[in-house]
Specification:
Number of helices: 22
Largest sheet: 5 strands, parallel
CATH architecture of the largest domain: 3-Layer(aba) Sandwich
Strand content: 15-25%
Shape: globular
Number of domains: 4
Distance between the termini: 54 Å
Structural class: alpha/beta
Strand order of the largest sheet: 4-3-5-6-7
CATH topology of the largest domain: Rossmann fold
Length: 654
């Protein structure tokens, strides 16, 4: 562990922040796009304001061990609020900014929140709506004052007001904040991140400074991250991946964090910043590729032919060139030409020209999607981790990329596969505890100190980890064949036309599936075929769309049939749901993971229809709108059969 000039260890995030302010004070720490203009703040400026905020929080009664709620989009001041809480020995608790007010109650109550720092009027209104249910909540501090002029409640304070008060306090007590930072210990809890709660109430995962610094150091050294790197921070601050990349690694390495103007401008801001280090979940990479393919379908014939010709070249040798493997000279020359006329301009349009390292995680990514980005020269890799492991378990080494694995154990991490197939991990990045849940903590770590991930998988001959499914979701068909629903669902979602899928089969004689179509991709497909539609429900019911989805499912079935382990789990019947699965309707978590049990219960009538051999089923479903109103969506859903393949003929059928 490095040390400060005065000999102190850089073993907490506040001490690392003060170190950067000392050694690279004038360098950019954060950028924020506001009203179309990028605003840059240096490490020295960030450190000064963070100390002032910490002093202001102390004046409001924030003490060592208290929890500070942080709610909003990615904003420099909200990241700074986490560090301010840590300076006082407190614990930041970031919350999902798109959660409705009722969803916030549990976390606010469970964490015993006294003070919340929020982005804007929207978040203030949510907290005011539920304040009566959270009696411990005494102060709400807002960053953006727009729309707040007529709010006169005494428990509301502007961010600037608290910082100004803190500066006066710091002036009057110049040694206060330095003494508070010095009291901090590496084993103190640095952040509390709540799990998504797919199977019950969310749990507060308490991670220490030591754990997140170990994860940050391991990843930074593994990929050679530098203080000159840039990252675009746009994923929820409550998600462990964003905390690792945008706070832990940024504070450990000293690179620049860039916050987009809004969720709607992310792709534009990505092009303007041109990050060197980038993270996105598979759905973002899928959406980008879908938009590229849609635009190419609408392009002129010469441009379209050039694109497809050089993409064939890229598929043939691009990933190998990126991995510095031997490639025939003719292919190298063609690829160089393709880089000039197609790949380079494409990377530039996508904002990926400067990327040295790009990661994806959170769900499986299709081999074709993975290969596409690597073939055009984007060093896209997968990682594997969980909230309880600081999103740090496996990383993919350069030159050793496997499309069907999540990489090898990260530096300092041990992986073991239990007899049940569950993945067990050990290392310095493990959680300290679940907040107020000693029972859950004891259940999650076995006698040998391994965290039980709940995922099922195996290590291949070269030590790469392959994930099959959540261990609790792996079941069996009535005939005894292993049923891994997530494995099948991910294969279905590799098609651009399928946004979400839910498979059923445990204890049954066959596998059936619900499908959500991708409105953008299928809508464009329909328009090019002059198929008129009035909205999602209408489009999802079109016979041509059902044929399109059936073709995708049958391609997956042919692929499944070629693997003896999963050949019996081909999808026999399916339907396209009349509405998109939505977190606001409790069907998905805020990280867009399917609440499998809830969906099965809510749509039990559809499951019964699939297995009863019916050709259609009427359903009426209640939905929640963003403004809080409720409505109903009804449809008569058509149920289709899909062709399945025998093992012996699988390769011919595919």
């Amino acid at each position: 562990m490095a040390a400060t000039p005065d000999g102190g260890a850089l073993d907490t995030f506040p001490r690392l922040l003060m170190h950067h302010a000392s050694v690279r004070g004038a360098r950019p720490a954060v950028r924020e796009k506001d009203l179309g203009i990028w605003q840059t703040r240096s490490w020295a400026e960030v450190a000064e304001e963070t100390q002032a905020l910490a002093c202001g929080l102390a004046q409001l009664g924030f003490r060592r061990g208290d929890r500070l709620a942080i709610i909003g989009d990615n904003r420099p001041r909200l990241y700074g609020s986490m560090l301010a809480a840590q300076m006082l020995g407190g614990i930041p608790v970031p919350m999902y900014q798109d959660a409705v007010a009722a969803e916030m109650v549990f976390v606010l109550q469970d964490a015993g929140i006294h003070i919340a720092i929020v982005e804007d009027q929207e978040q203030v209104d949510k907290l005011m709506e539920i304040k009566d249910q959270c009696p411990e909540l005494q102060h709400i501090i807002y960053d953006d004052p727009r729309g707040m002029r007529h709010y006169t409640q005494t428990f509301l304070s502007g961010f600037d007001e608290v910082v100004a008060s803190g500066r006066i306090h710091k002036q009057n007590h110049p040694d206060f904040i330095a003494a508070e930072i010095a009291q901090g210990a590496t084993e103190d809890i640095s952040v509390m991140l709540y799990t998504s709660g797919t199977t019950g109430k969310p749990k507060g995962v308490c991670q220490t400074h030591r754990a997140f610094i170990a994860a940050a150091r391991g990843g930074a050294e593994f990929d050679g991250l530098r203080d000159t790197d840039d990252i675009l921070s746009y994923l929820p601050m409550a998600w462990v991946g964003d905390h690792l990349f945008s706070l832990a690694q940024a504070i450990f390495v000293g690179f620049t964090v860039n916050c987009p103007e809004s969720g709607d401008t992310v792709m534009t801001d990505l092009r303007e910043i041109g990050p060197t280090y980038y993270f996105a979940p598979p759905r973002v990479f899928e959406n980008v590729l879908t938009q590229v393919m849609i635009r190419m379908e609408d392009a002129g014939s010469i441009k379209r032919k050039l694109f497809h010709y050089f993409m064939d070249v890229a598929k043939r040798c691009g990933a190998e060139i990126l991995d510095r493997k031997p490639v025939a000279m003719k292919d190298r020359l063609l690829y160089a030409l393709g880089n000039f006329v197609v790949y380079g301009p494409l990377r530039n349009v996508l904002g990926m020209s400067r990327i040295r390292v790009a990661y994806t995680a959170g769900a499986a990514i299709g081999p074709d999607l993975f290969r596409f980005y690597r073939s055009i020269g984007v060093n896209l890799k997968q990682l594997y981790g969980q909230t309880e492991t600081c999103a740090y378990v496996c990383l993919q080494p350069d030159g050793q990329i496997k499309f069907d694995s999540v990489g090898m154990p990260a530096p300092g991490v041990e992986i073991k596969i239990a007899d049940s197939g569950e993945i067990l991990v050990k290392g310095p990045m493990l959680l300290k505890e679940y907040y107020k849940r000693p029972d859950a903590t004891a259940e999650s770590i076995n006698a040998d100190g391994y965290f039980m991930t709940g995922d099922a998988g195996f290590l291949d001959a070269e030590g790469h980890l392959k994930i099959i499914d959540r261990a609790k979701d792996v079941g069996k068909l009535s005939g005894g064949a292993m049923f891994a629903p997530n494995y099948i669902e991910n294969k279905l979602k590799f098609f651009p036309y399928i946004k979400e899928s839910v498979c059923f089969g445990h204890g049954r004689d066959m596998v059936c599936a619900f499908i959500n179509i991708d409105m953008g991709a299928v809508g464009n497909w329909a328009e090019r075929r002059h198929i008129a539609y009035s909205g999602y429900t209408d489009l999802a019911c079109k016979p041509a769309v059902l044929d399109l989805i059936r073709d995708c499912i049958e391609q997956v079935n042919a692929e499944l049939a070629s693997d003896a382990m999963v050949a019996d789990t081909q999808v026999h019947r399916f339907l396209v749901l009349h509405k998109e699965l939505d977190p606001d309707d409790d069907e998905l978590t805020r990280t867009r993971k399917v609440r499998r049990g809830f969906v099965a219960e809510k749509y039990a009538v559809l499951i019964d229809a699939l297995y009863a051999g019916r050709e259609s089923q009427f359903i009426e479903t209640e939905v929640k709108f963003e403004d809080g109103r409720r409505g109903k969506v009804a449809a008569d859903l058509v149920i289709r059969d899909a062709k399945t393949f025998a093992k012996a003929t699988a390769m011919r059928a595919a």
